[in-house]
Amino acid sequence: MNREEGLKLVQEKIQNQNLVKHCLATEVCMRELAKHFAKDPSTSLGAGDLEKWGLTGLLHDIDYEETKNDPDKHSILAAEILEKAGLEKDIVDAVKTHNERHGIAPESKMAKAIFTVDPLTGLIVAATLVLPSKKIADLTAENVINRFGEKSFAKGANREIISQCQELLDINLKEFIEIGLKAMQGISGDLGL
After folding, report:
1. Within a 10 A sphere around the Cβ of 183, how many other Cβ atoms?
2. Which range of residues forms the domain containing residue 139?
3. Domain count, the chain
4. Start and end of every HD domain (predicted)?
5. What is the pLDDT of residues 9-48, one digit of tens each?
């Protein structure tokens, strides 16, 4: 499945436009992380991995509207849908493990990335929406870090999971936020921010 086919599937399965934007944000953050890791000569990431990582981000919540009332099925159904569509096992596994409710530890670097990036995108969007301009171009990593410590702010953005970027990906929190923010700023028009 290529990106165009993946986007078509997202548009068929997801009616809520904010959820579509979340999928786009996760896709671009995953691509940016893949680029980050590809710069390290000790990793074996190549150009094809950027596409694979992006597709994983784009499709990770493909089942959300079908499972929103049964969160224990979320990502299990998505993995089944993607497996039937012929996606590679590592994409299917990464999508399955991104829902922490299942208690499945992410194994691959891609699975660890989607696990930590998913809630980060929500935190970045929420931090943007409290700015006077409501423009992601005006948001800084420092703004996001300041909001990170506010427990009542963007409660759905699980800080515990986001902060696992250090342990799972060997990227400190500030750099992780900078990578995600830069990626999302690059598609501000698609995100309506």
Report:
1. 24
2. 3-191
3. 1
4. 21-111
5. 999 999 999 999 999 999 999 999 999 999 887 777 777 7
